[in-house]
Amino acid sequence: MTRPSSAPIGVFDSGIGGLTVLRALLAELPRERFRYLGDTARLPYGTKTGETVVRYSLQAAEALLDLGVKCLVVACNTASAVGLEAIRDRVRPLPVIGVIEPGAEAACLATRSGHIAVMGTERTVSGGAYQQAILKRRPDARIDALPAQLFVALAEEGLSEGAIAESVARHYLGALFEGHGAESGESVPDTIVLGCTHFPVLTSAIRAVVGPRVRIVDSAETTARVVRAELAANGLASSSGAQALGAAQVPGAAQASSVAEASSTAEPSSAVQFIATDGAERFARVGSRFLGRPIRPDEVQLIDL
Ligand code: DGL
């Protein structure tokens, strides 16, 4: 099974966090069209067992496959950490790009001292995928891995700034970044990698705890560059497509009674088609902040996986 270069790119996450990756993809690949699937009915993935995350991820991948996508971006660190190989096996030969390797790359490019803090969901951190990806690039790295599951709920609630977010950031980071103090001589990470696509919206709360000198990186832009390279390597880069419409300007997808119907009738005129498994209004309201531009509820189609 191969797909034409004019086909859209499939992107998925457990919820709206992957919209931070979609934002970078839209900037990097303005000629491409996207299908974004947020499995909002079953979020969070980060507290589930690996088996469940793999099962959910395969269902999401298959739904996007049914929409005719030419490649898949797994814009969820948790799904990338435990499900990437299973997804690759299922959709072969379509390219599948996860966010862990690009995130590790971003962290290794940013760090000077080699001391890196990885923040992610419980499942991502306990599986060790980020730690391995960093050590592969930088064997002398020192890594502090910090599960920060509550950040997902804050981000989904739209509570990503202010006193509550800062207090949770202090709960997770205070001991490491505020407990040492320069005088103790103890090494403090010079870089934090946000190993969950929900976390970039919490950057200012994290910054308030760790101070101005620590580099805070995420996988979005590096992932977008990897996707560009993969498309080129596979002859899948679109030569026409969304650019004429303007990727940032989204006229709005036609409402369809089902995704199958939407894919088999006229193509939506927008660069992005949003699909969720629950809560179109909430997806649009909170997701707008992640994407950096308004999403209308009627742009979001609901499906069952
Ligand atoms: N946004 C996802 C990630 O990058 C998962 C959040 C969750 O569902 O727990 O890991």
Tag the structure with descriptive keywords:
single chain; 305 residues; alpha/beta; Rossmann fold; 2 domains; 6-stranded parallel beta sheet; 4-stranded parallel beta sheet; 12 helices; 10 strands; 43% helix; globular; binds D-glutamic acid
Topology, please?
Layout: E1 9-13, H1 19-28, E2 34-38, H2 50-66, E3 71-74, H3 77-91, E4 96-97, H4 100-110, E5 115-120, H5 122-127, H6 129-137, E6 142-147, H7 150-157, H8 163-177, E7 191-195, H9 203-210, E8 215-218, H10 220-233, H11 259-264, E9 272-276, H12 280-291, E10 300-302
Parallel strand pairs: 1-2, 1-3, 2-9, 3-4, 5-6, 5-7, 7-8, 9-10
Helix pairs in contact: 1-10, 2-3, 4-6, 4-10, 8-9
The protein binds D-glutamic acid (DGL).
D-glutamic acid binds at residues 13-15, 17, 43-46, 76-78, 121, 124, 152, 196-198.
